[in-house]
């Protein structure tokens, strides 16, 4: 028996039509081909399946023993896809109820799908491999259409045209830099832009940025206070950095010499911690507000502002102690106060949440008894 085996390595059939594979038999294979052609007429695997049907019909008219099947892989990579094809070939061979020796004629649409041939050969002898090539793809009109389709794809435009455009701008920008006596700056800026773009594409930062922008847009139109809180917190962080730098410069000028690393760190923290604490309070209160509006607020969320205050008190006291502006007694009191504040807030909201849960449980029980 000859098995006409149509190979779809990246599982376009399953992903685009929902067909369960492998597909075995002429009528199911024809149904799958029509479904794929309807879902995506430009998919080359449509031609592979119809070619398999054509060969099947031709051999069946000659009264030869023949069967047709479609096997697919997946879109997770060559190794995983090849294993999936091998498993489906095993399923197809197990379903053939024949005492004859089975050989295969493999139908593919290109070299990528043909990479699975060794996997198939390990399971069944292969009489031949037929690569399906659409005739129109060989003429100039089809080439123009293909290029047009590629350039119309937004992802392709971003991947190919933007780097090519930046490279083509290097020469005119170099001429402008030579006129302005700034060739290094112009070339460096161009190279930096190209490098940042390639890194962002390689790391997939474009999708992350698009997701962040979409989330920010939804938050803005939904009236969420978190977005505004984050903007304010970012400004407070910048002010905190500036304040920390000013504090460090003041300590350095007063000491008149080099500072040790712990003292430098303490100066930065001492000057910036109150700004950072304000930023933390802003973001936590904004998040609590949104959770309350959404009806999903839990008592333990209220711990966040108190934790921020506790950490700020401790860091402020420690940094002040290293700078020599406070005594040991103040440090001990501040550490104790920060710790007690965090513990009290945790216990308070935990007890409140437990009591509320018990009350809701009792109300539910009473309501059930009344019913």
TrEMBL record:
<dbReference type="Pfam" id="PF04123">
    <property type="entry name" value="DUF373"/>
</dbReference>
<feature type="transmembrane region" description="Helical">
    <location>
        <begin position="160"/>
        <end position="180"/>
    </location>
</feature>
<feature type="transmembrane region" description="Helical">
    <location>
        <begin position="221"/>
        <end position="243"/>
    </location>
</feature>
<protein>
    <recommendedName>
        <fullName>DUF373 family protein</fullName>
    </recommendedName>
</protein>
<keyword id="KW-1133">Transmembrane helix</keyword>
<feature type="transmembrane region" description="Helical">
    <location>
        <begin position="306"/>
        <end position="324"/>
    </location>
</feature>
<keyword id="KW-0472">Membrane</keyword>
<feature type="transmembrane region" description="Helical">
    <location>
        <begin position="263"/>
        <end position="285"/>
    </location>
</feature>
<feature type="transmembrane region" description="Helical">
    <location>
        <begin position="186"/>
        <end position="209"/>
    </location>
</feature>
<feature type="transmembrane region" description="Helical">
    <location>
        <begin position="330"/>
        <end position="352"/>
    </location>
</feature>
<keyword id="KW-0812">Transmembrane</keyword>
<dbReference type="InterPro" id="IPR007254">
    <property type="entry name" value="DUF373"/>
</dbReference>
């Amino acid at each position: 028996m000859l098995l006409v085996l149509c190979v779809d390595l990246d599982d376009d059939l399953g992903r685009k039509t929902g067909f369960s594979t492998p597909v075995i038999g002429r009528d199911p294979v024809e149904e799958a081909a029509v479904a794929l052609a309807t879902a995506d007429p430009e998919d080359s695997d449509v031609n592979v399946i119809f070619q398999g049907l054509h060969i099947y019909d031709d051999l069946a008219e000659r009264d030869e023993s023949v069967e047709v099947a479609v096997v697919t892989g997946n879109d997770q990579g060559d190794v995983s896809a090849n294993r999936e094809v091998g498993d489906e070939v095993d399923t197809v061979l197990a379903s053939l109820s024949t005492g004859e020796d089975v050989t295969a004629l493999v139908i593919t649409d290109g070299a990528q799908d043909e990479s699975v041939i060794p996997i198939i050969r390990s399971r069944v002898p292969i009489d031949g491999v037929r690569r399906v090539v659409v005739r129109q793809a060989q003429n100039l009109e089809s080439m123009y259409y293909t290029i047009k389709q590629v350039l119309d794809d937004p992802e392709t435009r971003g991947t190919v045209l933007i780097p090519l455009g930046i490279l083509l701008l290097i020469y005119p920008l170099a001429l402008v830099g030579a006129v302005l006596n700034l060739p290094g700056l112009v070339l460096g800026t161009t190279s930096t832009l190209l490098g940042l773009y390639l890194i962002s594409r390689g790391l997939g930062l474009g999708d992350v940025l698009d997701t962040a922008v979409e989330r920010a847009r939804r938050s803005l139109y939904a009236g969420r206070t978190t977005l505004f809180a984050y903007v304010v917190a970012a400004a407070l962080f910048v002010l905190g950095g500036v304040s920390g730098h000013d504090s460090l410069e003041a300590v350095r000028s007063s000491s008149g010499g080099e500072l040790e690393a712990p003292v430098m760190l303490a100066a930065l923290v001492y000057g910036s911690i109150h700004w950072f604490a304000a930023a933390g309070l802003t973001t936590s209160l904004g998040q609590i507000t949104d959770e309350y509006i959404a009806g999903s607020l839990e008592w333990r969320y209220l711990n966040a502002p108190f934790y921020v205050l506790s950490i700020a008190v401790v860091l402020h006291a420690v940094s002040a102690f290293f700078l020599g502006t406070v005594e040991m007694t103040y440090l001990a009191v501040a550490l104790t106060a920060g710790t007690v504040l965090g513990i009290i807030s945790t216990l308070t909201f935990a007890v409140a949440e437990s009591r509320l849960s018990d009350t809701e449980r009792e109300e539910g029980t009473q309501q059930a008894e009344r019913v």
